[in-house]
């Protein structure tokens, strides 16, 4: 089993029946029962801590918020919605059947899909915001309307887009009693819907965001190079990291998704292909999902202003721990300074001799 983004689940590959005998891909199921719950749990814990910290800091210091902070807040909320669904999918993968009922099937699918598309759309919004701030910095029209209220309006629009892209999967998701047990997946009234869902995922999940990122950052980098700022090289490295990380984490997932689409067009029909696609999807899916763990690091913690606020908040929450860390750091610095002074004296003594 797998989340409904792929629309059919691994059930198609466990018991595929072609012109010959049915395929026996039970080892794919057995591998998924151990692999998926473990990786989903790790992604959930790491991602929840990071994104939860982002939300807490932005709420705590909301008086200092700007449009970038609004985008960061909604990106973190999107990732949290997505992460909330992972324990349910982990349980689903471990038992190989859905035990939470029809309402929770749709509710978890709602969290999953809204978080999935919301995360991507808010990354696009942050990219566009960075593009206008750097490339069109002297545009009075943009500077005048770049406020928190405009950011909130754009965030509402992005959530509406995410809901619109998610609706077909949410509406058609239901619990069904099959030979392998209870399943939670979309039951489309027409096979065309399933094919459209694959194309939608590839276009909205990779082609459009990657195209916008490449276009915007290809204009941002020359603009930064023309500036006489010492921080431009750090900014350029961060931009390259953003694009490369997004490409590495999401491209394999979209490639395998496209191969699923070709499967429904009656390509890759033999048993070996079904086995390989089932295993490949489990790997690339987890790689793609772990991207939400990196979002707080890439988009939030890298910024100096936000990093200072995080450290300030952690000192308030865990004063004992940070006081110990401060003591250890001061002791290490004292040891280094004393060792350095001893070496300097030794060197000076040697020179005199």
TrEMBL record:
GO terms for cellular component: early endosome; external side of plasma membrane. Keywords: Cell membrane, Disulfide bond, Endosome, G-protein coupled receptor, Glycoprotein, Membrane, Receptor, Transducer, Transmembrane, Transmembrane helix. The chain crosses the membrane at residues 39-59, 71-90, 110-129, 150-172, 196-217, 238-262, 282-302. InterPro entries: CCR1-9-like, Chemokine_rcpt, CXCR4/ACKR2, GPCR_Rhodpsn, GPCR_Rhodpsn_7TM. GO terms for biological process: calcium-mediated signaling; cell chemotaxis; immune response; positive regulation of cytosolic calcium ion concentration. Residues 50-299 form the G-protein coupled receptors family 1 profile domain. The keyword Protein biosynthesis does not apply. The keyword Disulfide bond applies. One of its GO terms (molecular function) is C-C chemokine receptor activity. It is a multi-pass membrane protein. Gene3D superfamilies: Rhodopsin 7-helix transmembrane proteins. It is found in: Cell membrane; Early endosome. Its main location: membrane. This is G-protein coupled receptors family 1 profile domain-containing protein. It comes from Pygocentrus nattereri (Red-bellied piranha).
């Amino acid at each position: 089993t797998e989340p409904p983004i792929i629309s059919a689940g691994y059930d198609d590959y466990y018991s595929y029946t072609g012109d010959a005998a049915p395929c026996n891909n039970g080892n794919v199921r057995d591998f998924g029962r151990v692999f998926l719950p473990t990786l989903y749990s790790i992604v959930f814990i790491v991602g929840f801590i990071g994104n939860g910290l982002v939300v807490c800091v932005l709420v705590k210091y909301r008086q200092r918020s700007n449009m970038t902070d609004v985008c960061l807040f909604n990106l973190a909320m999107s990732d949290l919605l997505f992460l909330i669904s992972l324990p349910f999918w982990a349980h689903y993968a471990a038992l190989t059947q859905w035990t939470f009922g029809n309402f929770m099937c749709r509710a978890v699918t709602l969290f999953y899909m809204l978080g999935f598309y919301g995360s991507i759309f808010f990354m696009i919004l942050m990219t566009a915001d960075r593009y206008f701030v750097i490339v069109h910095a002297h545009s009075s029209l943009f500077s005048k309307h770049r406020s928190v209220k405009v950011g909130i309006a754009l965030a509402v629009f992005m959530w509406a887009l995410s809901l619109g892209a998610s609706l077909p999967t949410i509406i058609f998701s239901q619990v069904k009693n099959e030979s392998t047990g209870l399943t939670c997946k979309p039951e489309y009234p027409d096979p065309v819907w399933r094919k459209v869902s694959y194309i939608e995922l590839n276009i909205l999940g990779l082609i459009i965001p990657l195209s916008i990122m490449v276009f915007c950052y290809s204009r941002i980098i020359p603009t930064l190079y023309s500036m006489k700022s010492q921080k431009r090289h750090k900014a350029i490295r961060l931009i390259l990291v953003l694009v490369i990380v997004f490409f590495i984490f999401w491209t394999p997932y979209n490639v395998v998704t496209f191969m699923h689409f070709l499967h429904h067009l009656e390509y890759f029909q033999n048993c070996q292909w079904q086995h390989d696609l089932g295993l490949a999807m489990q790997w690339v899916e987890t790689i793609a999902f772990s991207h939400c763990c990196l979002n707080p690091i890439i988009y939030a913690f890298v910024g100096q202003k936000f990093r200072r606020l995080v450290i300030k908040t952690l000192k308030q929450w865990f004063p004992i721990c940070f006081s110990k860390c401060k003591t250890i750091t001061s002791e290490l610095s004292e040891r280094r300074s004393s060792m350095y002074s001893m070496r300097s004296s030794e060197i000076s003594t040697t020179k005199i001799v």
